[in-house]
Amino acid sequence: MGVLGRLSRASQLLDRELRTFFAGHGLQPGEFDILATLRRAGTPHRLSAGALAESSMVTSGAITNRIDRLVAKGYVTRETDPENRRSVLITLTDAGRALVDAVAGAHLENERRLLGPLTAAQQDQLAGLLRRLLAGLGDV
């Protein structure tokens, strides 16, 4: 199996592992990404939908679908930006904050488990190689 085959297989296996992990918390990986991004934004834990799409590196349609699911679950609210009526602000609710705080530690532990076969130096080397590959593919 060549380099691209191994990259593809690793991506599939990691995706499955992450989906299983987050499903255990009633989330999809992209939903957790939004909750964590809002949490890191600091008080009042609010960002525009556009900023979330940019941070998540997904289309506006994909971010809208994720936000819709999180609104339905009560983890975020959506409101029109009073300073720019064309923009929508997404705010983390108390329930969303409690969930992301509860899941974050377990997520980091899961990442450590998944990367466990690699030493810290190998993880750093792999991260650098992947950054270079992504840049070469036009992903900045």
TrEMBL record:
Specify the domain of life of the species encoding this protein. Answer: Bacteria
Q: Please provide the record's keywords in A-Z order.
A: DNA-binding, Transcription, Transcription regulation
TM ranges: none
SMART domains documented for this protein: HTH_MARR
The record ties this protein, via Pfam families, to: MarR
> What Gene Ontology terms describe what this protein does at the molecular function level?
DNA binding; DNA-binding transcription factor activity
The HTH marR-type domain extends over 1-135
- By what name is this protein known? MarR family transcriptional regulator
Q: Which organism is it from?
A: Georgenia thermotolerans
